[in-house]
Amino acid sequence: MPGFEIFGDEERKQVNDVLETGVLFRYGFDGARKGHWKAKTFETELARRVGVEYAHLCASGTAALSTAMAACGVGAGDEVIVPPFTFVATIESVLMAGAVPVFAEIDETLCLSPEGLEAALTPATKAVIPVHMCGAMARIDEIKHICDKKELILLEDACQSLGASYKGQALGGFGKAGCFSFDPVKTITCGEGGAVVTNDREVYIAVDAYADHGHDHIGNDRGAEDHLIIGANYRISELNAAVGVAQLRKLDWILETQRRNKAAIKAAMQAIPGVDFRHLPDPDGDSATFLSFFMPDVASARQAVKALAAAGVDGCFHWFDNNWHYIRNWNHLQAMQASARLAVQTLANCPDYSVISMPRSDAIMQRAISMQIKLGWSEDQLEQRIDNTVNTLKSI
Ligand SMILES: Cc1ncc(COP(=O)(O)O)c(C=O)c1O
């Protein structure tokens, strides 16, 4: 995902503002910072962009997930429903909360399915984390409906989907809280960073406190502040936030460019026999960071990624064989290899992750390929890519 492709004078200017004041801390030093509040500015603009009341920056998307979970009251022994196709950070944050990840099947949206969610519910289910993978949406209205009906906490992992929406509402804004990542390979990046967004004032206050050792941030004497809860240090620095301010202001252009590039490739691929596309519940809301498609079976998918790479079509991922994003190759999780005993391992209901079976998700992921969409392609490069893609896939 492309934020890093477009660093320019805007990012340099924002960072220089911070360096010139010498105030790298997001709180306090009111005089010395000469009016530069990069984290606060980024939060205000992000909340407006997502269409929510509150946004709070964290040190990473993983930190944002941990913070959101703590603020929503998810903790020891609570079952949290998660999809098997995500970045492993989603699962880590559940484990770090002392909660129990319960895997549920995905569908052709490449995200948690409402049917999978229903099948995984137990009396101990406390929360559900749909992950809006590869720039686009889960069937979030149906998932929200189930969560509302069953009084479950809906927490959206929108780390990969800034700028995407479902029927006009930005992803991340449906749940009790939503999380974003601004790590080096996200739609916009600030080096390392993340955010929690919410419309719930109590959740926001808990997020704000948890990410900074429980501080209530009332007044401007940090030493005299009260501590609302036991927290952690998941703060972002002003330097990172400064880069994020410049990047967020480029988001419209990023989305427009991605959508144009993706539409051209997808249109040319429509006529390839045997190739089908990821289901998008709202195609207009796709952020278009990836073009995800299905080959007829696992053998042709494996053949296709190899042949595409050989033909110079880079950035095509067959997640089934990739060890970052699909449960099949998370050997460390299956064996629960941790540096020390995890809270979940002390629980009577700790699942045996070495025997988790996800037949429906396997059948989908075996056939799925995601092609990265870049911003920097020239017209010629795009044309060449389209030709190479179509010719390669037709030959399989
Ligand atoms: C779906 C998902 N969740 C969470 C994260 C974690 O974000 P970060 O790398 O900022 O900790 C990522 C990052 O790749 C992700 O893709």
* Unreliable residue stretches: none
Bound molecules: pyridoxal-5'-phosphate
Based on Cα principal axes, name the global outline: globular
Largest sheet: 7 strands, mixed
- DSSP strand tally: 13
The strand order across the widest sheet is: 1-9-8-5-4-2-3
Q: What does the model show?
A:
With about 400 residues, the protein is α/β, with parallel strands linked by helices. About 35% of the residues lie in helices and about 15% in strands. The protein contains 13 helices and 13 strands. It has helices at about 10-20, 40-50, 60-70, 90-95, 115-120, 140-150, 200-210, 240-250, 250-270, 300-310, 330-335, 360-365, 380-395, and strands at about 55-60, 80, 100-105, 125-130, 155, 165, 170, 175-180, 195-200, 275, 290-295, 315, 370. The strands form 3 sheets. The chain has a 7-stranded mixed beta sheet with strand order 1-9-8-5-4-2-3, with helices on both faces. A 4-stranded antiparallel beta sheet has the order 10-11-13-12. Helix 1 (about 10-20) packs antiparallel against helix 8. It is globular. Pyridoxal-5'-phosphate binds next to helix 3 and helix 4.
Topology (SSEs and partners):
Blueprint: H1 9-21, H2 38-50, E1 54-58, H3 61-71, E2 79-82, H4 89-96, E3 100-103, H5 114-120, E4 125-128, H6 140-150, E5 153-157, E6 165-166, E7 169-170, E8 177-181, E9 194-198, H7 201-210, H8 238-248, H9 251-269, E10 276-277, E11 290-294, H10 298-310, E12 316-317, H11 331-334, H12 359-367, E13 368-372, H13 379-394
Parallel strand pairs: 2-3, 2-4, 4-5, 5-8
Antiparallel strand pairs: 1-9, 6-7, 8-9, 10-11, 11-13, 12-13
The protein binds pyridoxal-5'-phosphate.
The site of pyridoxal-5'-phosphate has 14 residues, from helix 3 and helix 4.
